[in-house]
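Project standup — Tuesday

K.O.: blocked on the structure for the chain from last sprint. Re-posting the sequence here as requested.
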Amino acid sequence: MKPDKDDLIALDIDGIDETKHMSFDEARVFIKHIREKTGRYPFVYANNLVTKAIADRYDEDDIFARTHLWYARFKRTVTDFPAGTWKTYTLWQFSSEINCQADNRAACLYTVPGTEYDMDVNVFNGTVEELRKKWPFG
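H.V.: unblocked you, prediction finished:
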């Protein structure tokens, strides 16, 4: 892996079942390896269930807590964030094909004119200037 200086690096943790997905301990090893090889911590991309499980198990773990969270929570607002490991999210993916249908675009949380209905939509938890200054969160 040889990311450019502007490439965002992310680890997608899809679930908590260690027979189907990377375990949290394996994720911690992977995060350390990425840091050693690139000098940066990757983002952790995780849904509410995974984020809560990490917070319950590791609380303010020194490895997970050094990463930024890309929070996959497909709702209009985040009212149930499981703080602990992360105090908040850095990026929030709030819309995707999960909560949007081709035959009812009005139900989508957000759409960009001229795009398909199932486009993922993410927001940065901060200002445009903060995003420019921090990208790619090294």
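K.O.: great, moving the ticket to review. Helices lie at 24-38, 48-58, 128-134. The CA atoms of residues 47 and 76 lie 15 Å apart.
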